[in-house]
């Protein structure tokens, strides 16, 4: 058993529900989805973001992902050997009534799977949160762990897959199993969202599926900075994924991220 690096509380890896991990939305009584059918039923019944986050955080519907995320939480990367790992599905993070919605891909094995917060603990997250802070959408430029005090200003970060997948590649079956969680989340937050920022082409396609009844034809194609205007004033704003490769090669730069999130904040009425 290890202590949480910030709170000093002892934790096992992976973290049991209701153990006191900072921000853990679940309790030992939170129902666990053991298969795709149970995911669909629980997601449909969720009545609040808080309830949905709790249900997601204890899901065990994909055996391959459960095995992988928990194995990583026990073996750990050498540089994090002295830290406990979350080792569970990572719920979305941010405002329960967001005006800006950011859509990623899946948690990183030694990033969010370690910290328990979406896009935290790896270089992609470092770039993302720094840009969000410069745009005034989060309270600080760094996101270290779930106890670092970071707060959201009208933004929420979600992903179509909530468990860290081997080689960062969930299977089609795993994506489909996780999809009802995303559908339920959109049902709960849709009235508030004004701008959606998909990070990369796959996230763009995920958003178009989510909004299928509102997408014009022909379907808008992904591109960095592309804005698709849907009905009711909703806009989808494309952004390259802030992956280490994209940032290292210069395909995406901090200035380009700043342009995207400054525009998102302005379109959502969160700037100035």
TrEMBL record:
InterPro entries found in the cross-reference section: UDG_Type-4/5, UdgB-like, Uracil-DNA_glycosylase-like, Uracil-DNA_glycosylase-like_sf
Known Gene3D superfamilies for this protein?
A: Uracil-DNA glycosylase-like domain
Pfam families per record: UDG (PF03167)
Where is each Uracil-DNA glycosylase-like domain found? Answer: 91-261
Iron-sulfur as a keyword of this entry, yes or no, is: yes
**Compositionally biased residues, Low complexity:** 24-35
Output the superkingdom of the source species: Bacteria
* Keyword annotations from UniProtKB, A to Z: 4Fe-4S, DNA damage, DNA repair, Hydrolase, Iron, Iron-sulfur, Metal-binding
**Region Disordered: start and end of each range?**
1-35
Q: Which family does it belong to?
A: Belongs to the uracil-DNA glycosylase (UDG) superfamily. Type 5 (UDGb) family.
Protein name as catalogued: Type-5 uracil-DNA glycosylase
